[in-house]
Amino acid sequence: MDPLLIGLVVVAVLAVLWLATRKRQPAAPAAKPKAKALDALDTVVAWPPSATRLMTNSERKAYAVLRTALPEHMVLAQVPLARFIKVPTRYSYAEWMRRAGQLCVDLLVCDSSSQVVAVVDVRQADIDESERAHKRHARMDRVLKAAGIPVHVWREGHLPSANAAREQVLQGMPPELSQQEGGASVRTRSAAARLAPSLDSGLEDDDAVPRDPPPSTWFDELDSAPAPLDGGAPTNRPGPRP
Description:
Layout (H helix, E strand, L loop, with lengths): L2 H22 L9 H6 L3 H4 L10 H13 L4 E7 L12 H9 L2 E7 L5 E8 L7 H16 L4 E5 L6 H9 L4 H6 L2 E4 L4 H4 L48
């Protein structure tokens, strides 16, 4: 018999046996999505929590300067943008949170009624900042500017004095003097708007328009559909209730 024919017959028999063996094997269970696997983990057991410091050394020094300069104001640390900025819910709120809402300002200055007056951000020198940090700061500055909130950038190791800080936050300072004192300001509101929160404004002002912050439960039912960066059709799902 022709050796070539014998070889073809052997190959064919082996192929039939291999296919028969595969059919008898049970199908492998489908792999569970990674998200479901993570949901099954216990929050505390899988990620053991421990307390840590809230501010760096430079941020603590800047905080002390602001507390001395503005004793009649509230100074809050490490506040996410989503806690003092509201945005329309025409597009996915979860997508906005992913891009900017979870960014934290170093120090937030408020008047006695907790209305935002200004943001103070303590940063490294431009040459020492990483590209990632630079992009994060640029995005945060853009959001705060659009919201009309003044941003005062203080450099580590060159913090202003208490008097200079008070003048900077409440009235604004010439750019060259701000630089000499260690602070550079991003002007985002007119002088009248910056001076609007008076030092003796209180909680009992009947003429004031209340501006309540987003509730802590605002993020419980988020529309997680991604939104386009520029343009695109708006989502029809209801957004979170303000």
